[in-house]
From TrEMBL:
<dbReference type="InterPro" id="IPR021120">
    <property type="entry name" value="KduI/IolB_isomerase"/>
</dbReference>
<dbReference type="GO" id="GO:0045490">
    <property type="term" value="P:pectin catabolic process"/>
</dbReference>
<protein>
    <recommendedName>
        <fullName>4-deoxy-L-threo-5-hexosulose-uronate ketol-isomerase</fullName>
        <ecNumber>5.3.1.17</ecNumber>
    </recommendedName>
</protein>
<feature type="binding site">
    <location>
        <position position="205"/>
    </location>
    <ligand>
        <name>Zn(2+)</name>
    </ligand>
</feature>
<comment type="pathway">
    <text>Glycan metabolism; pectin degradation; 2-dehydro-3-deoxy-D-gluconate from pectin: step 4/5.</text>
</comment>
<dbReference type="InterPro" id="IPR007045">
    <property type="entry name" value="KduI"/>
</dbReference>
<keyword id="KW-0413">Isomerase</keyword>
<comment type="function">
    <text>Catalyzes the isomerization of 5-dehydro-4-deoxy-D-glucuronate to 3-deoxy-D-glycero-2,5-hexodiulosonate.</text>
</comment>
<keyword id="KW-0479">Metal-binding</keyword>
<comment type="similarity">
    <text>Belongs to the KduI family.</text>
</comment>
<dbReference type="GO" id="GO:0019698">
    <property type="term" value="P:D-galacturonate catabolic process"/>
</dbReference>
<dbReference type="InterPro" id="IPR027449">
    <property type="entry name" value="KduI_N"/>
</dbReference>
<dbReference type="InterPro" id="IPR011051">
    <property type="entry name" value="RmlC_Cupin_sf"/>
</dbReference>
<dbReference type="GO" id="GO:0042840">
    <property type="term" value="P:D-glucuronate catabolic process"/>
</dbReference>
<dbReference type="GO" id="GO:0008270">
    <property type="term" value="F:zinc ion binding"/>
</dbReference>
<keyword id="KW-0862">Zinc</keyword>
<dbReference type="GO" id="GO:0008697">
    <property type="term" value="F:4-deoxy-L-threo-5-hexosulose-uronate ketol-isomerase activity"/>
</dbReference>
């Protein structure tokens, strides 16, 4: 049986000019990512990225997408990034089982056919966050263990954005066609995930916000720099950020997020910064 997914169609800056809060949430927010025993996927027409959660409990789970993508199997023409944010588990890749503790990641190359997910303990399931983008070339599948990543420390407590950035799928770590993926942890007392704001016209991005208390919320800033809007985001919810939109967030307490980019290039610092005084 094909894995179901929700489709998000592309929206431009003119489209959202008069959007209500409800319309913004419908077009850019994925409120459900992890459901025990299920696969929850979302397909955005912004650069055709697929993102979502795989949460196995008592049985292994497999993403089955062929007819809906016009292919014979899911990764026939795609690459995949995975980061586990839950309990211990494993990924079975072409018959080989790879252990995945919390914060471990994987880059899985195009043309991988046999791919399954499992948890060690159904009462504390793994939560595999997955992101897939179209791919034109086979690059090697690589495990990216959190123990082997040296985080990039950036920001400042004075500007409330001191944070550690863990690069997973990135030219410094492994090769990919267009997918980039990483993990950012804000320091206690910091609230902004980035500032000044920026856009990257050549790439879109999705954000998964997590490791938040029940009453913590992130105000995700989006829209054109001179016509900003915002979405209020809860724990384990994800945002679609088009290439024309800023993507800054500020939380009521510290939080963590996974960013995943795809598009024209894989140049991490290809950003167009917006002076804070120009935001409106």
């Amino acid at each position: 049986m094909e894995t179901a997914y929700k489709t998000y169609y592309s929206q431009g800056p003119k489209d959202i000019k008069h959007h209500s809060t409800e319309q913004l949430r419908e077009d850019f927010l994925a409120e459900e990512i992890f459901t025990p025993g299920k696969i929850v996927l979302n397909y955005t027409h912004h650069d055709r990225q697929i993102f979502g959660g795989v949460t196995p409990t008592t049985e292994e789970l497999e993403i089955v997408l062929n007819k809906s993508l016009g292919v014979s199997y899911f990764l026939e023409r795609r690459e995949l990034g995975v980061i586990n944010i839950g309990g211990p588990g494993a990924i079975i890749i072409e018959g080989k089982e790879e252990v995945m503790k919390k914060q471990d990641g994987f880059y899985i190359g195009k043309e991988t056919k046999d791919l399954r997910f499992k948890s060690d303990d159904p009462s504390d399931p793994a939560k595999f966050y997955v992101v897939s983008t179209p791919a034109h070339k086979v690059y090697p599948t690589v495990k990216i263990a959190i123990d082997n990543i040296t985080p990039m420390v950036t920001g400042d407590s004075k500007t409330l954005n001191h944070r550690r950035i863990y690069q997973y799928i990135h030219p410094n770590v492994c090769e990919s066609c267009q997918l980039q993926m990483g993990y950012t942890i804000l320091s206690e007392g910091s609230a902004w995930n980035t500032m000044p704001s920026h856009t990257h016209e050549r790439r879109m991005e999705t954000y998964l916000y997590f490791d938040m208390n029940d009453d913590t919320r992130v105000f995700h800033m989006m829209g054109e720099p001179t016509a900003t809007k915002h979405l209020v985001v809860g724990n384990e919810q994800a945002i679609i950020s088009p290439s024309w939109s800023i993507h800054s967030g500020v939380g009521t307490a510290d939080y963590t997020f996974i960013w995943a980019m795809c598009g024209e290039n894989i140049t991490y610092d290809d950003m167009d910064f917006i002076p804070t005084q120009d935001l409106k």
